[in-house]
Each structure stands twice: as structure tokens, then as C-alpha cells.
Amino acid sequence: MTASIGRVVVLLGAPGAGKGTQAQILSERLGLAHVATGDLFRAAVRDETPLGVTAKGYMDRGELVPDAVTIEMLLERLAQPDAQAGILLDGFPRNTAQAEVLRKALAEKGGRVDVAPYIEVPEADLVARLGGRWICRAAGHPYHLVGKPPIKEGICDVDGSELYQRSDDQPETVQARLRQQLGALDQVLGYYRDHGVLKTVDGTTGIVNVTADLLKAIVPAIGDRS
Ligand SMILES: [Zn+2]
Questions:
Q1: Is 56 among the residues known to form the active site?
Q2: Would you call 94 a catalytic residue per the annotation?
Q3: DSSP labels for 88-103?
């Protein structure tokens, strides 16, 4: 493929920062293809592309898919018609090694990461958002202490059964997992700060305001394409 590389936006944020929601809104507003690496894997495996078959081999053996394979998938994705204006990356790179592989792969095709907006949310808020999930014993109806609390504390609105937290959703588990992920994220933030493309946005001001702030950070870096 010799198609030229469009704009590349790397959206960064911790789990619970609202990255997936913003990625969808932004990709639509900016005319960029939203590329979540999880979707990329699923599509390649489903379509049985050569890279999908390779990736599936690793996954079937319980191994991590090597960065080089992921990058090849990304480059294939970049060459597709809906990505000509560019892509918004969601969930990649996860560490500085991947960031460096991405930089080299894009550079070989005359591209670069144009901007890396970061949705900043304090750790305590993230734990509250991620750890607030409760479900009912009778039917698994989901609730969230912040986003969707039950009318009566601890009781399902629908069937009156008791609400409980899965071990995965308990605050200590959430915090431990988050700490690990934040460590890697910090390094990626440092990487893009060093490359002069990091733009930090306050992620605590509500979806609409966060979107507006992200657009202010991104548009000057890529030009307005909406
Ligand atoms: Zn229920």
C-alpha cells in the first residue's frame, strides 16, 4: 500500500476516564475513523485476514499478540477508504515500546502522531466510577452508585432482590488494577509530552464540556475537517 497517511490522533485516558465515549463523539465530529485495537483484532480474526490468522495463533496459545502484528493491522486499517482523513486511536499504544513502534511505522509512510489528547481524571474519581458497579442477585440488573443508583439503597428497583458487587468491581480490586494501568499510562504520557504532542484536558467537567475542550486541543493540530 502506498496510500498516504492521514491524520493520527491518539486519545489517552485511564479506564473510567470516558475515553470510549469521547472517542465515538470525536471521530464523528472530526470525520476520523475510530480505531479501537480490540475491535481491530476481532475484525481481523473474523475476516480471517493473514494478520488475523497470525494474531489468532498467538491468542489461541494464550500469548500476547506482538506489537509488530498489531501495528501491521493498524497500518492496514489506515489504508482503508473511511480512514483517508485519518484515524483516532483508542487503546493503543499502551506502553512506550508500542508508542515507539507506532512512531517508526508511521514515519516510514510519511506520517506521524499529530496530537495526543489526554483526558485527565483524578485517581479517586476513577475508583468511584469503576468501583461503583452493583448488580442484583435475582437477574443481574446493573446499577452504578454514580451513574445509575437504585431508588432504595442495596435493593433492585425491578425485582426487589439484594444488590451485590462482583469481586472484580470491589474498590480494593479496582484500585489495585488501576494502579498497574496508571503506571504504564504515565510512561506513555511522558513519551508524548517529550514529542511535543500531548494536550491535557480536564475530564471531570461533564461529557459535553470535555468534548468541547478536546476539540479545542485537537482541531488546531489537525486542521478543522468537520
Ligand atoms: Zn433485579
A1: no
A2: yes
A3: EEES---SHHHHHHHH
The enclosing H or E element of 180 equals helix 171-194
Question: What pLDDT shows up at residue 225?
Answer: 45
CA of 114 to the centre of ligand 1 (A): 46
pLDDT for position 221:
92
Query: Hunting for cell 483526558 — which residue is that?
Result: 119
| 77 catalytic residue (yes or no) | no
- The Cα–Cα gap between 157 and 171 comes to 23
The grid coordinates of residue 72 equal: 501491521
Instruction: Determine which one of 29, 56, 94, 193 is catalytic.
Output: 94
Instruction: Tell me the three cell numbers of residue 222.
Output: 489537525
The residues, ordered by sequence, that sit 6+ positions from 125 with a Cβ below 8 Å of its Cβ are: 16, 204
Over the stretch 6-56, which tens digit does the pLDDT of each residue have?
899 999 999 889 999 999 999 999 999 999 888 888 888 898 889 999 988
Q: Taking the CA atoms of 118, 98, 26 and 220 in sequence, report the sign of the dihedral they define.
A: positive
Active-site residue identified among 7, 77, 129, 133: 133
Q: What is the pLDDT of residue 226?
A: 42
The reply to whether 29 belongs to the active site is: no
User: What confidence score (pLDDT) does residue 4 get?
Assistant: 67
Q: DSSP H helical segments within 34-170, as ranges? A: 37-46, 50-60, 67-78, 96-108, 123-131
Task: Look at residue 192 in the predicted model and tell me its pLDDT.
Answer: 98
